[in-house]
Design a protein that fits this description.
Helix content: 25-40%
Largest sheet: 4 strands, mixed
CATH superfamily: Glutaredoxin
Radius of gyration: 13 Å
CATH class: Alpha Beta
CATH architecture: 3-Layer(aba) Sandwich
Strand content: 15-25%
Amino acid sequence: MKLFGKKESAQKETGNEAVKVLGGGCASCHALEASAKAALAELGLPQEVGHITDFGEIAACGVMHTPALMVDGKVVSSGRVLSKEEAKTLIEKARAQA
């Protein structure tokens, strides 16, 4: 296992590959997931949200504070729980830049 680098993950990532919550699975992570799902529903997108819970992988993404939201491989927020509207805005902005 490499620290802070690409490694083969023993942990399976779940859900939508485009939108992911990064965090250990705490209450804040679940709240961020709920906000992201609500935002995706409003945008008419699939409401599946992936999870990365391995802290080595999270750190490799440059995240030092969880929960974090990743859209299309780019971290758009970290260290706080977003409201539905904030998540919606960040998802739309990330998709517009892609």
